[in-house]
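pipeline/complex-builder :: batch 7 item 3
reading input block
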Amino acid sequence: SQQGEEDPQALSIQEGENATMNCSYKTSINNLQWYRQNSGRGLVHLILIRSNEREKHSGRLRVTLDTSKKSSSLLITASRAADTASYFCATDEAADSWGKLQFGAGTQVVVTP
Amino acid sequence: ETGVTQTPRHLVMGMTNKKSLKCEQHLGHNAMYWYKQSAKKPLELMFVYNFKEQTENNSVPSRFSPECPNSSHLFLHLHTLQPEDSALYLCASSQEQGPYFGYTFGSGTRLTVV
């Protein structure tokens, strides 16, 4: 069953701009993770943020988590054409989903030179 | 490469065929997963193995049969599939099944059922 929902479904920006996408989820979580998928390939793990954390950084990526609103955001700063991909949030539900990630439908990001 | 290898990359099979998908990881991980990715739909978790034991079968039809002979290898045996089973099948692994481990994915097998 789907837990996270990304917004927007699609995003088109120019190189150098920032890209922001959001993820909302329904139940309490242990952690939330973001993944990237290039067309027709496997997913690549970007960042894991635990439920007791509010913000994490990795290079040009910044992830925030607001457990009171059950939402997360992924910011890609100074985007590049190589950032063109689909981005997925995945949640590990706190209840009975021990280590089983539920993925959203993704945000398709296109970065044009 | 990610350290998780899936073969074959592409597979076309008839509805009466029997085939198998293979996943191999060289990361020393103890948990392995099968996901199905259909167009415009979220990834669907199919099966989970932790230390070779199946811990999740997400109501998957019996025409899909997983096998995990050891922590490094995972198979998905397919028989009498339907056209709606056409999808990208992704294998993933993690250090173990638990709340604080990220997954490493393979590149997937693109399955077409004709």
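note: Chain A has a mean pLDDT of 93.
queue -> next item
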